[in-house]
Design goal:
Layout lengths: L6 E2 L12 E4 L9 E7 L9 E5 L12 E2 L2 H5 L9 E8 L9 E6 L2 E2 L1 E6 L2 E2 L4 E2 L5 E4 L10 E8 L5 H7 L5 E2 L2 E2 L3 E6 L4 E8 L4 E8 L6 E8 L5 E8 L4 E7 L14 E9 L2 E10 L4 E4 L3 E4 L2 E3 L1 E6 L12 H13 L4 E4 L6 H10 L2 E5 L9 H15 L5 E8 L10 H5 L6 E4 L10 E2 L6 H8 L4 E2 L17 H10 L5 E4 L7 E3 L5 E3 L18 H9 L3 E2 L12 E6 L10 E9 L9 E9 L10 E5 L11 E7 L5 E8 L3 H4 L12 E5 L3 E6 L2 E6 L5 E6 L8 E6 L4 E11 L2 E10 L1 E8 L5 E13 L2 E6 L5 E10 L12 E8 L17 E3 L4 E6 L2 E6 L6 E4 L19 E6 L11 H4 L10 E15 L21
Parallel strand pairs: 27-28, 27-34, 28-29, 29-30, 30-31, 32-33
Antiparallel strand pairs: 1-2, 2-16, 3-4, 3-6, 5-14, 6-13, 7-12, 7-16, 8-15, 9-10, 9-11, 9-13, 17-18, 18-21, 19-20, 19-22, 22-23, 24-25, 25-26, 35-36, 37-38, 38-41, 39-40, 39-42, 42-43, 44-45, 45-46, 46-47, 48-53, 49-50, 50-51, 51-52, 52-61, 53-60, 54-55, 54-57, 56-59, 57-58, 58-61, 59-60
């Protein structure tokens, strides 16, 4: 058990200056804690005084009982939440130097009702509300130079029913305890309690300084300093009241946006004559927020659109008790997805998170708790005050959200402006159509077609939740079409995907498993420990502000690539573009990936923000067509990678040169029995059933039989084999299977090298979830797969983004997104644009390849969404070679299979008309030495290439 004690005293710049001094009584975060005495009234380890680490949730320290906020639904009307209380005791001393100062005890967050005593005396009224910073003046209760006793009673359930309704009857884990730090603050007798700033894009600076007392002759001064700590503006005012107002102007300030997070600092001093009585400082940014009704959201006079995500404050081992490293990790993940906004659902976050959003650049919706029921005015008013006073000077916060999905107490709407000098807009994050507030409709989980109707109406539309990301559904699925709607429509303001991370909790009562409470909490784009799921990179591509729509290189390609600038404030010429010509590694090579053979940097085009279009011109060498692929990477003005595209230069047939080898001196032959035909070439033989035309066995004489069989069968449509015809064709032997129904023929050939080809043709007319053929192979025999194609993540019909051409290598795993283990990428799924795929099994290796474009390979049994029936349905067999794959729906579609199509055109079933032809090549076992060139170079690790 670690004990942590931190005494932090800020050293003044001037000897006479007095500033706030801080002493932590708890640890500073979930990794640096302090042991306090503790007694829990119920559940595990209750009824005895022991030790607990602070800050923490007591459940995660082995005390009490667990509850998910929707347990009342799970367990029925007689269910009662665990209502334990935690009694805390901690002794402390106050520095001698604090004599004559005002001393406050501060709680950054405590769940849920908190009563505080100092040396047996009440520090003040019971605090009700879990997520808010509160403090008490305890100056007159302390004993100088002696041990002081802090006693805290924390009640998990509030005595105010509206607090329980707002915070605990919710779709998230509800925990107990002092989960954020506890500290002492010492200030001189005369001090500035807090300041409120309004810094506009035109350079105007206004500030209110809130004093504890007004004394004649005192003066408040403010110095505005830039990032180089130069004084760029100043103001002063004589104290006449406890609120002192100051104004000044800065010419041509560097403005704050998510793209340009320019910060300034104001140093505020309280002076008595020549003496500096007190000094404080605050960071801020110059920016102006406007809602122009029936138009859009404007920042600094520019219309902006939200590429946002919802975020819970969360870490599996410690719940809502986190640290600045976790906050930084989350901001970096959000920015890596090319998002520009975050909603703090459903409560204000740690202050460090907001500091990081300020400095790295994210638009923030700071939200009062109120999941689907609101605080009463009596309970909510002080919490609004606490939230706004703490957070008002963060330039990243552009909206206050007054509760979620009906948890809006409209009597509190006007309270935010009382404490926020900049008077930011207030919104209602709701799930009821037509509930427009302040000109913005935030309605949740509209489908694509209802979204189009809202955008054609008169209100700005900014869904604060959409495309629910449970398991592998939602998130990036259908996002491309939703984003195009919002980007192109006047009233589209973007939105916030639900949500960032699976809310998996390490259960100390269940052998430390990670519990996501069934289908309730696995809603993340990333896993509990921020494991990246398939939607992560898809969002990154869809939201890239450098928009490149080129899917493949046209025959006339001359190095020119169309580019659209979807930044709001940044010219593309501030980005950097890098190109590379590469050759892919082969199936028999040791490593996956490609070799970079030539590379260069392109001249960044001058393309203005806001959707303007232009061209990127690459100065490629004359022999560029001799390479396998072209790679293009783009970095933002801060040198962070935005996205990387890879386009094949060669056709699939050219890429298979030297891999699929047909010519050899070995013999080919066939044999026929009453029930089977056997084709032999080199060391390989395949056996087909004359009864159904299906493959029944394959063998390489150099190894064991390989259990690849039971195909081809159609995954959509019907086919019945009618005959099998044997023949010789040049250097191959052929078995052609004829069918009645939708499969026209399947023509098997084996070549002297042992390579096998399968040519087939089918005809479908109508709507189908998938199209192609299947085989079967024992999944438990599989060790992994290596392939040339899109990867490394699986795709769906309505989530084809975020995967790039390369040689990928995935080890087998049985991951289903949203449940343990969170091993990504998933091995199983649909994989796109496959040229070849090599399977590694306990029986040996076998390879499948195609010279044709657009092949999807389905690997084994999996699903996107768990529920009454896993969604979507799967083709027959378990190894499929497909020309069309299904879309996925979201948790919010009650009948998922029926309602997936409402997510947009890309989410509809495949409309197929006519004949499809394809050729597959197979090699069962390892090809003979010399058929494949061995390479032992290490794979490239540069993120750009």
């Amino acid at each position: 058990m670690r004990y942590f004690f931190l005494l932090l005293i800020l050293v003044p710049v001037l000897s006479e200056a007095q500033i706030k001094e801080v002493k932590y009584l708890s640890g500073i975060d979930n990794e640096n804690t302090v042991g306090w005495d503790f007694f829990c009234t119920g559940g595990r380890n209750s009824g005895v005084w022991t030790k607990i680490q602070v800050p923490s949730h007591w459940e995660q320290q082995g005390f009490g009982s667990y509850n998910y906020g929707r347990d009342y639904k799970t367990y029925g009307k007689n269910f009662r939440f665990a209502d334990e209380q935690g009694f805390y005791k901690h002794s402390f001393t106050v520095p001698i130097s604090w004599k004559g100062k005002r001393i406050f005890i501060v709680f950054e967050g405590s769940m849920t009702d908190t009563e505080v005593k100092i040396n047996g005396k009440s520090a003040g009224a019971k605090h009700q509300g879990a997520f808010y910073r509160f403090k008490y003046d305890i100056t007159d209760k302390l004993i100088a130079s002696k041990q002081n006793l802090l006693e805290v009673t924390v009640s998990k359930m509030s005595s105010d029913e509206s607090v329980n309704n707002a915070e605990r009857l919710a779709d998230y884990w509800v925990l107990g305890g002092i989960f954020r730090p506890v500290l002492l603050e010492a200030v001189p007798v005369d001090f500035i309690d807090h300041i409120a700033i309004d810094a506009k894009a035109d350079g105007s600076f206004a500030m209110n300084a809130f004093l504890n007392a007004a004394k004649p002759g005192q003066i408040v001064t403010a110095e505005v300093r830039d990032a180089q700590d130069r004084v760029v503006a100043s103001a002063s005012a004589v104290v006449k009241d406890t609120i002192v107002k100051l104004n000044t102007m800065l010419k041509n300030p560097l403005l704050w946006t998510a793209e340009t997070p320019n910060l300034y600092k104001v140093i505020v001093s309280l002076r008595q004559g020549s003496k500096q009585v007190y000094k404080t400082s605050e960071k801020f940014g110059f920016r102006t927020i406007e809602i122009r009704k029936q138009d859009g959201i404007y920042l600094n006079g520019v219309k902006i659109k939200m590429k946002g995500v919802n975020r819970h404050v969360w870490w599996p081992e410690t719940g809502r008790s986190v640290n600045a490293k976790i906050d930084l990790m989350d901001v970096k993940l959000i920015r890596e997805m090319n998002m520009n906004a975050v909603r703090c659902s459903h409560y204000p976050p740690d202050k460090s998170f907001l500091n990081i959003c300020d400095s790295l650049g994210l638009y923030v919706l700071d939200e009062l708790a109120g999941w689907q029921k609101a605080y009463s005015t009596k309970a909510g008013a002080p919490l609004v005050k606490e939230m706004v006073i703490r957070d008002a000077n963060h330039p990243s916060i552009i909206f206050w959200s007054n509760g979620n999905e009906g948890g809006h107490n409209k009597e509190l709407d006007d309270d935010y402006g009382i404490y926020d000098l900049s008077n930011r807009p207030v919104i209602h994050a709701h799930h009821r159509p037509g509930n427009v507030f302040n000109g913005i409709d935030c309605n949740h989980y509209e489908d694509y077609y209802s979204t189009k109707k809202i955008l054609a109406d008169s209100s700005i539309y900014m869904p604060t939740e959409f495309l629910h990301a449970q398991d592998d559904g939602g998130a990036a699925a259908a996002l491309n079409e939703f984003w195009e709607l919002h980007w192109n429509e006047k009233l589209g303001a973007g939105g916030f995907i639900w949500d960032l991370a699976d809310e998996g909790l390490v259960r100390t009562d269940l052998n430390n498993i990670i519990d996501v409470n069934g289908v309730n909490a696995p809603d993340g784009i990333v896993g509990p420990h921020r494991e990246k799921e398939g939607s992560f990179n898809a969002i990154r591509e869809i939201y890239s502000p450098v928009k490149i729509q080129l899917r493949s290189l046209p025959p006339s390609f001359n190095g020119t690539i169309p580019v659209e600038n979807r930044y709001h404030f940044t010219n593309i010429n501030q980005c950097k573009f890098y190109w590379a010509l590469v050759n892919y590694r082969k199936p028999g090579d040791v490593f996956a990936g490609y070799d970079v053979l030539k590379k260069g940097e392109a001249v960044s085009p001058d393309i203005l923000p806001g959707g303007k279009q232009g061209e990127l011109k690459l100065s490629l060498p004359d022999d560029w067509r001799n390479y396998d692929a072209l790679v293009l990477s783009v970095t933002d003005p801060f040198s962070s990678l935005l996205y990387k595209w890879t386009w094949n230069v060669k056709t699939n047939g050219q890429l298979l040169s030297g891999i699929v080898v047909k010519e050899d001196t070995a013999a080919v032959s066939y044999q026929e029995t009453d029930s089977t035909v056997v084709l032999k070439g080199g060391q390989v033989s395949i056996t087909l059933s004359k009864l159904n035309g299906q493959l029944t066995g394959v063998r390489n004489m150099a190894s064991d039989p390989i259990s690849f069989a039971k195909g081809p069968v159609m995954v959509s449509g019907n086919a019945v084999s009618t005959s099998v015809k044997l023949s010789k064709e040049e250097n191959a032997v052929v078995a052609e299977v004829s069918y009645s129904g939708d499969l026209k023929y399947a023509k098997w050939k084996i070549f002297p090298t042992g390579w096998v080809s399968l040519e087939y043709s089918y005809e479908l007319n109508g709507s189908y979830p998938f199209a192609g053929i299947s085989f079967s192979y024992p999944e438990n025999f599989v060790l992994g797969a290596k392939w040339l194609g899109k990867g490394p993540y699986r795709v769906w019909k309505n989530r084809l983004q975020g995967v790039t051409n390369n040689v990928w290598n995935n080890a087998y795993n049985n991951t289903q997104a949203g449940s343990s283990p969170w091993i990504f990428p998933e091995f199983k799924g649909y994989f796109a644009d496959i040229t070849w795929m090599e399977f590694n099994t306990v029986e040996g290796k076998f390879t499948v390849a195609t010279p044709d474009n657009g092949l999807y390979v389905r690997l084994f049994d999996f699903y996107a969404l768990s529920g009454k029936q896993p969604h979507p349905e799967l083709p027959v067999g378990n190894l499929s070679f497909l020309d069309a794959i299904p879309p996925i729906g979201t948790k919010l579609a009650l009948n998922i299979s029926a309602n997936t199509s409402q997510l947009g055109p890309q989410s509809e079933p495949n409309k197929i008309s006519g004949i499809t032809k394809r050729t597959l090549y197979f090699y069962f076992g390892l090809p003979k030495p010399g058929d494949m060139k061995k390479q032992f170079t290490m794979p490239a690790v540069n993120e750009l290439f």
